[in-house]
Design a protein that fits this description.
By secondary structure, the chain is α/β, with parallel strands linked by helices. It contains two helices and seven strands; from the N terminus they run αβββββββα. Strands 1-4-3-2-6-5-7 form a seven-stranded mixed beta sheet, with no helix packed on it. A hairpin with a 2-residue loop joins strand 2 and strand 3. The protein starts with a helix and ends in a 9-residue tail after the last helix.
Length: about 160
């Protein structure tokens, strides 16, 4: 009887440990965001979102002020439409701007929200007009190579 009680307790603590590890893994991968804050939704169009994903952080001055709620493709203007859920207690002017940024060299992408100077604030459903798309490393390398190939001041090396 005593051994069976100990087995139940050990099993119980193992189960709690597995649930805790699962919770931490989901939290670290941004697949689980536990937030009971009220939010309002704003959206923006981007030419290229790179590797931006749903639930990516929206940061202003390094502080997380919201999350990416949904990403869709608008086939009328051929742009990505990104919907943001901003925490209700953060208010930003209507002329604020969004940039897709990367944390570290190979890190995940997030949205940087820079406050503008307009007297009127964003309201639910508003569109952020000023956006800057993601910087794609392959595009930068190809631009550099093409500019070097087209540079007439470059002289070929003599053997």
């Amino acid at each position: 009887m005593q051994r069976s009680k100990n087995d139940i307790w050990v099993g119980f603590f193992v189960l709690i440990g597995l649930v805790a590890i699962l919770f931490l893994a989901l939290q670290a991968a941004n697949l689980l965001s536990v937030s009971w804050q009220k939010t309002y939704t704003v959206w923006a169009d981007f030419d290229n979102i790179g590797g931006l994903k749903k639930k990516a952080a929206v940061k202003s001055a390094g502080v997380v002020v919201g999350r990416v709620d949904r990403i869709t493709f608008d086939d009328k203007v051929f742009q990505a439409k990104v919907e943001l859920a901003i925490d209700e207690h953060f208010v930003f002017p209507k002329d604020s701007s969004l940039k897709i940024l990367t944390s570290g060299l190979l890190g995940e992408q997030y949205l940087g929200l820079e406050a503008g100077a307009d007297a009127e604030n964003l309201k639910p459903g508003d569109k952020i007009q000023s956006t800057q798309s993601a910087v794609v490393l392959e595009n930068l390398i190809s631009q550099f190579l093409y500019s070097k190939a087209a540079d007439p001041t470059q002289t070929p090396a003599k053997p």
